What we know:
It comes from Prymnesium polylepis. By secondary structure, the chain is of the alpha+beta class. Helix content is 29%, strand content 25%.
Amino acid sequence: MDGDEKRRRDDDDTTDKATTCKLQRSSLDCLARVASCKTVCRAAEALALHDTVASLVHRPLTDEVVLAFAEYVALRPRWPGAHELHPLEATHGRVAIIDFTAQAPRDQSQGDALAGATGYGRDLPPRNSANVASARAAIEVVLSVLPAQLAKVAALDASELLASLRRHTGRRQFILRLELNLGDTCQKWHRDLNISRAIVTYCGPGTLVAHEEGVSREDGGAVVAVDACHVVQADAGDVLIMKGGLWEGAEGRGAAHRAPAIGPMPSCTTHRLMLKIDVSEDF
């Protein structure tokens, strides 16, 4: 075999291997599923797997807590800042940035995963303030619109999610939201252009998310359609963590999901209360 022929065969072998890898990757993409996990930590860890597009932890709330959240939402609470929104705005929110940039190794050794982390946002000191708030103080401010019993439930979830996402993504900044939906939002199947989002629904129907085998997409990853046979819906209290289109290696193919239909504003009577945590790019 002369040198040119050998090089040509080597090139063909390389091309075949690359094609095989591409086909295998496409196959794995199509098989990516919503993983069922037993703990929040496992759910955050599972996102690193190529065959996982989202992870779900089933954690039913007690009847007492379900009733307490329902009674709170039924009161139609008016949160601070609501007067600034359009009367037909369906989403009211409370937001803070949780930042682990200043966290030192000695903070983590104390056994408190949020030690050294800070928080800033509305009703909190500025990011670079000498009196910047701790992460726990920021969580408390965001949840201060809830009755104490319910704020405690949501604070435990927020702390656990932040610790798990920080550990398994290595990211430093997270966007914490408490959100009240008073009408339909995000009815179309879509993927978020973020790194990841965790959602816990406390009142109202939970978010719908799809196994990848039932999803049709455009080349850039945008969702075109979803087969209802491949849809999973979170229940109240469940923890849903989804890959976004900016997840490394996702190439725009974030988890296909949508909000459940609850009715249009202002006639809607079924409202949703949720905790959301986005894994953020550094800013």
